[in-house]
Amino acid sequence: ESVEAEVSTCSLCHIPYNEASVPFRVTMLKCAICRRGKVPDVLFTTIELPEGIPTTGTGCLLQAYVCRPKPYCKGEMNAKEISDGLPFLEYELHRLLINKLKVKGMNTIFGLRVQVQIGEKMLVGLATGTAVFLTPLPPPPVPKVSAGNSWTDEKKLAEIQKQLLDTVKKNRETYQLKPISVSDQIT
């Protein structure tokens, strides 16, 4: 395949704005294929994987769910509780998806579907999609375990971080992704 054909396929991943006019906060990096366009560090899409887009390795199913308690109430108060709880449910789903992508060693979700179920005492969100490593985007950083001020057992934290690093390494081998380099580990 020619370099021009590769460049045209990687352009699907390029951000269509210049850096000064991006309408939201996004981390932009140079495209790993053409080195000219700018790409995001992660991409969530509801479309299916387009044919011919450059990927590395194989994809996998990615799923996250969140359950949030909701006080039992009726009428207008019920609507208010649902309205107040939905942004937090969506935020938590997004955070889980980002972390699961990092653990899988991937940087994109295609075919993302989000379902929200509202019960009398519970709000439940389910997000499902196909995780893929898009070659033009950078590899995700290895997640870092932090306990804040709540836990001081440094030995246990180091052990959990090592298990997490081993899981990421195993996932990158399983899905035939690029091996972990030293620069990927520094986050």
Automatic annotation (TrEMBL):
**What positions does the domain C2 occupy?**
36-136
Membrane-crossing residues?
none
Q: Organism's domain of life? A: Eukaryota
Cite the PANTHER family for this sequence.
Answer: C2 DOMAIN-CONTAINING PROTEIN 5 (PTHR37412:SF2)
Put simply, this protein is called C2 domain-containing protein
